[in-house]
Amino acid sequence: MPKTLIEPFRIKSIEPIRMTTRAQREELLAAARLNVFKLRAEDVLIDWLTDSGTGAMSSRQWGAIMEGDESYAGARSFYRLEKVLQELPGRQPFGPTPRGRAAEKVLFSATGKAGDLGPNNCHFDPTRGNLESMGVQAVDCVVAEGLQPATIAPFKGNIDLEKAEALLRQEGARIPFGMLTVTNNTGGGQPVSMANIRACAALLKKYGKPFIMDVCRFSENAMFIKMREPGYENTPIKDIVKEMFSYADGATMSAKKDGMVNIGGFIVLRSDEWLDAVRSGLIMMEGFPTYGGMAGRDLEALAVGLEEGMDEDYLRYRLRTAEYLGEKLDAAGVGFVKPTGGHAVYIDAKTVLPDMPVAHYPAWALCNALYLEGGIRGVEIGSVMFGKRLDDGVETFHSMELVRLAFPRRMYTQSHFDYAAEVIAEVKEKAASIRGVRITKQPKFLRHFTCECEWV
Ligand SMILES: Cc1ncc(COP(=O)(O)O)c(C=O)c1O
Predict the structure, then answer these.
(1) Is the Cβ atom of 216 under 6 angstroms away from ligand 1?
(2) N or C: which end of the chain has fewer CB within 10 A?
(3) How many Å apart are CA 81 and CA 83, to the nearest integer?
């Protein structure tokens, strides 16, 4: 067997990349106030800011789009998606939403209230924001190794069952439901094992709490289970997915990930308990429950995309891409969250810029350096994103300084990854000349999106 794992697709339609020179990028980044979020996408060569909604759709999905039924109620496209979904969670009903956080908002407002607690392995930040804006405290209970970038373990996204049980024992009355996010985006796209999903469901059942899964990356998680969890090596992905879903009482999904579409989401519920409240919430916030704010054509693309996302050849290639870049980073002496996750590689900026003070934001500095050196756009997950400037001007810093390179699905080829690895290695060589930044302007919340900086 040849060792090279090829992209399991051919390219039918292309989008040119606009080449830029370093001198142009210096001007562009200066105009963007040293914040890559403020760049125009066309000024970026390799855009790895996020894997969310940025992937390429297949010709089958584009074909399905023409079948979209845009009826307000009872559209054919809804029933087509329902058929696919009912085969997976084996439950009904479900409601489409325009995106993942809309599904969360509808579910949380129907089930939680101020003063409650929400346990999860790790909340994705807007999920946390959704809960906290309602006065619910989001509690992360990921296993200890999930917070250690260099520790190699197969399922670093697992929930710490003891920690979760202690919380349920002490604060049970304040907990409306428990959550698990697969894969764990905040913790490096790390998977959750089937054993952990099963045990988490049993634990919540013991305390009489519903179990909700955030299933944005369920098929990547299923592939990790197949590759790493004894007993699943010969199980078809769809059966692994069905088993994963079978433990949950409900799920929310941003379909922009493993749904292989550019927009969309949904909420599914097994029991009728919250159904009326969720339906009313959906109608009030997003639209009639058979479209929920999505266009019929997008429901069609999602029905096809969910199936395509479970294709094993695709998933093998998908997980290998991140691993491949990881091997090249290892060779260049660049540290990253190990093992590589499903959708992204998280570079540990402290291994590239060990001497830069955290007050100069090393991960932000590395993001800027990657853009200047090779036009690559990643996202800082460090002290700009998670630190805060308090009212007295004092800064708090984050424990980790990471740069996430998240890979849009089916979009970049092996040579793009080779190029990126070269750029990263080059940046490491030039580390001594890389400058940190100081923030000159920032909003009160979520400052990384819009802050302005200058070179230190
Ligand atoms: C784990 C997780 N949950 C929820 C969301 C929110 O999804 P959306 O961007 O569709 O609102 C995301 C998006 O990145 C995510 O990664």
Answers:
(1) yes
(2) N
(3) 5
Q: What is the pLDDT of residue 93?
A: 74
Q: Which of 161, 152, 150, 113 is nearest to 135 (CA)?
A: 113
Measure the N-to-C terminal CA separation of the chain; round to a whole number of Å: 52
Q: Which run of H or E residues covers position 267?
A: strand 265-269
Phi, psi of 37, deg, nearest 5: -65, -25
At 448, which amino acid appears?
Answer: H
pLDDT at residue 49 greater than cutoff 90: yes
Closest atom of ligand 1 to 184 CA is 1
Ligand 1 pocket check for 126: Cβ under 6 Å:
yes
Cβ(262) to ligand 1 under 6 A? no
Atom 16 of ligand 1, nearest CA residue: 185
Q: What is the pLDDT of residues 140-190, one digit of tens each?
A: 999 999 988 889 999 999 999 999 999 999 999 999 999 999 999 988 899
- Which of 48, 49, 124 should be mutated for ligand 1, with most atoms under 8 A from CB? 124
Residues 6+ apart with CB under 8 A from 202: none
pLDDT at position 40: 98
Q: How confident is residue 129, by pLDDT bands cut at 50, 70 and 90?
A: confident
How remote is the CA of residue 262 from the centroid of ligand 1, in Å? 12
* Nearest-5° Cα angle at 169, 168 to 171: 65
pLDDT in tens, 247-289: 999 999 999 999 999 999 999 998 788 888 999 999 999 999 9
Yes or no: say if 282 and 97 are a contact pair by the CB < 8 Å rule.
yes
Range name among 150-159, 321-330, 389-398 with the lowest pLDDT average: 389-398
Which residue has its alpha carbon closest to ligand 1 atom 2? Answer: 124
Ligand 1 lined by 101 (C-beta under 6 Å): yes
- Neighbouring C-beta atoms of residue 195, cutoff 10 Å: 14
- Predicted pLDDT at 91: 64
State the closest ligand 1 atom to the C-alpha of 98, by its place in the atom list counted from 1.
10
Residue nearest to atom 7 of ligand 1 (CA): 100
Per DSSP (E only), the strands in 299-420 are 344-348, 376-377, 379-381, 388-389, 395-396, 402-406
d(CA 317, CA 323): 10
> What atom of ligand 1 comes closest to residue 103's alpha carbon?
11
Give the pLDDT mean for 443-448: 86
